[in-house]
Amino acid sequence: MDLKTLLSFEWGMMAPEFTILIVAVILSLIDLFGKDSIKKYIPSFAVAGIGLALIFLLFQYGHEEVSILYDTYIFDSFAFSFKFILLIGTLLIFFMVLSKQKDEEITDRGEYVYLLLSALLGTMMMASSGDLITLFVGLELLSLSSYIMVAMRKRNKRANEGAMKYIINGGIATAFTLFGMSYIYGISGTTKLVDISREMSSALGTTEPIATVGFIILFVGLAFKISSVPFHMWTPDVYEGAATPVSAFLSVVSKAAGFVIIIRLFVTIFNTGVEGNETLYSSMIGFVAILAILSMLIGNIIALRQRNMKRLIAYSSIGHAGYILIPIVSLSAMTLENVWFYLLAYSFMTIGAFMVIYILEQSEKSEDISIFTGLFQRSPVLAISMTIFLLSLAGIPGTAGFIGKFNIFVGAISADPAQYILVGVMAVATVISYLYYFNILIQMFIRQPEFEGRRTVNKMQAVPLIACITGTIVLGIFPFIALNFFS
Amino acid sequence: MGLLSLLVFSPIVGFIILFFIPKHDMKMLHKIALAASFIPFLFGLLVFILFKTDEIPADILKWIEFEAGEKSFVIHYELAVDGFSTILIFLTAIIMSIAILAGSFHVKKDIRMFYQLMFLLELGVLGVFASGNLFLFFIFFEITLIPMFLLLSKWGGTDREESAFHYLVYNGIGSLILLVAIAAIFVSAGSTNFDTVMQHFATNENSGLALGIAIALLLAFGIKLPIFPLHSWMVKVHVDAPIPVVIVHAGVLLKIGAYGLITFGIGFFPVAFEKLVLVLAILGLVNLLYGAYLALVQKELRAVLAYSSISHMGIILLGIAALNESGIQGAIFQAVSHGLIAALFFLLVGSLANRTNTTSLKKLSGLARLTPLLAGFLLVAALAGLGLPGMSGFVSEFMVFLGLFEQLPWIGVIGTLGLVLTVVYMLRVVMNMTFGTYRNMFGEIKDLNVYEVVPTLVLIICIIGIGVFPNIIASTIQLTIETLRLGIGG
């Protein structure tokens, strides 16, 4: 590769990634060598960096498909729209980090910031990669940064337990993923997704058993990131142990990245077949459907018994992973739109809910559900905000969550064949989820407060709250804004 | 912004104004809430009058568009009314004002939040009846769920949280079945507009999909109505909810089930419903007899009324099962009539319970000596409930059975047994309460005051008005019936 070819690539397409990379490097240097007076601005620098990356990304809106570095980096509308969610989600989480009160136990603020940025960089590379190698590198970058972030509260017993579980489960999942990829490589002899897809469709038949094994192993490995069955057990412990912004990152950005990689891999590799023949994907959707059903039911049923708020949200997020798997099972023209919209809605409502929990957990020093008792009397603003997020998570009309759910229903029914069983299970799971979401409403509006004194929301805390409320409501009442943006 | 949008969102005015009134100024809160409840009432009256004289234009705005390959699905924000929904809107407005007035006697704590939730509930119910497509219908349908849940769990009786969760689970299941059905209709017809859907399924009426959706609708609205094995939540609500909420619940919310079954069920899937006629008739019969029998053996006045509601809802099902003009007309009449009668009953029961602190039938007897007005009104309510000629209940039962004898005479014969049982349980309860032996248990209690008499009289006038001049309603719903009759095919 000489300089001429190197310069001929459209490097400009990678501007968002480069921005994040440069900011992360600079911030880590500042953290090492900078004075304390500069250090306290590190999170603000990060916010500016993400904002800049977001602006670069928006300039690429409607840009034609580009692939550089010999197809290892692809820019297409898929990459664009999912990177948008990743950046928005991380931005909201940084607002959360900024809002923290002085006595929060994380003192190593700098590390925290640039680890979040490097994790974000990993997810963005995953969204854009067209090669198994870069895909895996992006995945590992995300995983390793996440492990450290979870383990960072080193004096907290729960955090240590969570970090231990996370790293062991994560290691196993990574091994699964890599093992699955090796099967794919064995069949096709290449790591480029485009080539793999061509090889798979021509070699189908003779290699089908091997491809099936590869499919299952790969999917199981990737289920870890989206916290769906069978790799879901880490979720509650890790969410409980990690600092709340990290939990929010894992449940939103990391999960979104998991879905990105699943769609990218499975839809391109396994969904091409000889004209008229069943593709491997369509013969395997039964397997994915079972995982979706188990996730929806297990997540929502176990959430019923939780009293720790972060564990509750963790189980609910397992259930939501099941919902988002439905459009992936019922592959149709609406699949991408459904997944994208649901993830966007999910980012706003989940980060919002985490934000309320974060504020309360700092003031009450507890994560028990009782921090919500009588909240309407103590802080009407927080109570109303939490109500909006909970109603959206439950899928009540007027909120983004409802439109997302309706979208998934319509997509699954209009698919061929129509997935009535999945839709039915999702309906049942939703009713189950009403029980624990509405239970929190009862705590807030009806129970007498167990904590004294009024709680106020300061300016820094108001920013992410307002952003999440706006997102949840606007997407619920004017969903076409987002839908038009997507198409 | 059209008239219908103003109507639907008018309860918001009360909701907002109440924020500006200090929490502890009870008198002011009562007054303002009552005054604000007249705003939707006036709009309801206006819609009712305009509907009689002129067409009411639908409110349409383009809203959401989904692209799925070549197909594109569009959802509008559209409000529209027909005869049936106009009457139900008017009924909602009347009963809401009465319930809010009743709130001033029955609700002691957090009255401001109570009224605000009531206004939110009213917004939901008005929206349900005024929506012009299924998607919007569903949105308003779900909006009623949240205020009802909070009203039940905060102001209810002893088992309030348990009842609230019962309500939530049953209605949640119902609404999600409905949502799946709506999604299926949407995918098949490409729109959720009532007329478009009706035409779409008129041309593809024999498909299995239509039958499936019809069954889903029957289940979803069957929970709301409620139909026999799905009724336990409704009894709990009737027994545990605060009186104003029961008035609205029995008076209006249950009618959403009837409205849905008639407008969407028979309206969209007449052929599929023809296949279900026998099922409907048997379910109706079971409701009628089971409700009446259990009403006969209850020891609590509220439970008697709860089972009596189930029994009366059976008559609606029988009317639907008859699937002819007079049957459906009877069902619609029964929906309206039961709304008024149930509201009247619970209004009086509320006043009674406030005075005696009990609704146990064992303790209540000989009230005619103590409180002649209250006892007299209770007797009137009972007579209306058992369908005395000259009152609204008679008209509806007469028409339902007229239709039923034409189509399914045997079911009609058994059904009349239910009517006899109704007479028995109504009289058993009320006769003993009013004319039974007088025991001096409650000390000095006062008779109804003017704030209790006026709403009672309004309801009684409506009940007798419909009984004597059924044409007020018949002429309004004529066009609705006509459209439905064309669908049924004769």
Summarize the structure.
The complex is a heterodimer of chains A (487) and B (490). By secondary structure, chain A is mainly alpha-helical.
List keywords for this structure.
heterodimer, A: 487 residues, mainly alpha, two-stranded antiparallel ribbon, 21 helices, B: 490 residues, 2 domains, two-stranded antiparallel sheet, 2 strands, globular, NADH-Q_OxRdtase_suN/2 (chain A), transmembrane helix (chain A), membrane (chain A), quinone binding (chain A), transmembrane (chain A)
How is the topology of this model organized?
The complex is a heterodimer of chains A (487) and B (490).
Chain A: H1 3-8, H2 15-33, H3 36-39, H4 42-59, E1 66-68, E2 73-75, H5 77-98, H6 109-128, H7 132-151, H8 157-188, H9 193-203, H10 208-222, H11 234-241, H12 244-270, H13 280-303, H14 309-329, H15 335-364, H16 375-378, H17 380-394, H18 400-414, H19 420-445, H20 459-477, H21 479-486
Antiparallel strand pairs in A: 1-2
Helix pairs in contact in A: 2-4, 2-6, 4-5, 5-6, 5-12, 5-15, 5-20, 6-7, 6-12, 7-8, 7-12, 8-9, 8-10, 8-11, 9-12, 10-13, 11-12, 11-14, 12-14, 12-15, 13-14, 13-19, 14-15, 14-18, 14-19, 15-17, 15-18, 15-20, 17-19, 17-20, 18-20, 20-21
Chain B: H1 3-9, H2 11-19, H3 26-53, E1 59-68, E2 71-79, H4 83-106, H5 111-130, H6 134-155, H7 160-189, H8 194-203, H9 208-224, H10 232-240, H11 243-268, H12 270-275, H13 277-297, H14 301-322, H15 325-356, H16 367-370, H17 372-385, H18 392-407, H19 409-435, H20 450-468, H21 471-488
